[in-house]
Amino acid sequence: MKLYHCAGSRSVRVRWLLEELGVEYQLEELPFGPQALKSAEFRRVNPLGRVPALVDGELVMHESGAIVQYILETYAEGRLQPAIGTPERGEFLNWIHFAEASLMVPVGMLIGQLVFTPEDQRNAGMIAYGRQKYAEQMKLVDDSLADREWLLGEFSAADVMLGYTVFLTAFIKMLDESTPNVQAYFARVRARPAWQRAMTSTLPAAGEVGA
Questions:
Q1: Is 30 found in the same domain as 99?
Q2: In this model, does residue 159 exceed pLDDT 60?
Q3: 177 and 133 in one domain?
Q4: pLDDT tens-place string over residues 73-106
Q5: Cis status of the peptide bond prior to 52, with omega within 30 of 0
Q6: What is the CA radius of gyration of the chain?
Q7: CATH number, domain containing residue 60
Q8: Which of 108, 107, 117 is nearest to 50 (CA)?
Q9: Dihedral through CA 175, CA 178, CA 180, CA 184, nearest 10?
Q10: Which of the four pLDDT bands, split at 50, 70 and 90, describes residue 204?
């Protein structure tokens, strides 16, 4: 199994999960930027020129959430996930998809404006809308963590999906005292050895937000 990865990008989710499970994999770390990601060589792996890209035998996958589910189904042997057919499984799947399909939408919008757009070209209306939607959705997360350390009580792959999105909110300085339970949650994320291993990089651009 080979994982194409850029530091700080969505491929962190995949690397983190593999580290939590102790699954062997080959890491191909790329610098974040068009020279590597848009190269003809990498486009043969992912024509969209984005990470993550996972190659497992003849299988090639590009979506972080789908890759997380594939790894769970293929290699986890029931770990880090509730059993299929249980009510807990439904809650688990809801959080898995909330992390990317819901919370990541305003977070991605804000990253696009605050990180990748020159200040004099930023769209104030888009930023205001992103902040509003971010606040609404992060309140849901904060309320859900009021009586538990992890989304399902015990650590699961749902935390792998959401924990990365929360990392991005901290990166753009949106994570603050308005959501104290999420702040404490992210501190627990950062304390996990597998997270720390997933965040290591030998490249000079380590820590940048990726695709």
A1: no
A2: yes
A3: yes
A4: 999 999 999 999 999 999 999 999 999 999 999 9
A5: yes
A6: 17
A7: 3.40.30.10
A8: 108
A9: 0
A10: low
pLDDT over 50 (residue 119) = yes
> Which residues on neighbouring strands pair with residue 26, listed in sequence order?
2
Cβ atoms of 79 and 140 within 8 Å: the answer is: no
Per the CB < 8 A criterion, the answer to whether 169 and 175 are in contact is: yes
Domain span at 167: 87-195
If asked whether residues 28 and 107 sit together in one domain, one would say no
Angle between helices 157-171 and 64-75 (to 10 degrees): 150
| Last residue within a domain, chosen from 80, 110, 136 | 80
**What pLDDT score was predicted for residue 142?**
98
DSSP per-residue codes, 50-66: -S-EEEETTEEE--HHH
Q: Are residues 29 and 127 in the same domain?
A: no
Q: What is the pTM of this model?
A: 0.93
Beta-strand pair 26-29/2-5: parallel
Both tokens of 160, joined, read: 């792998």
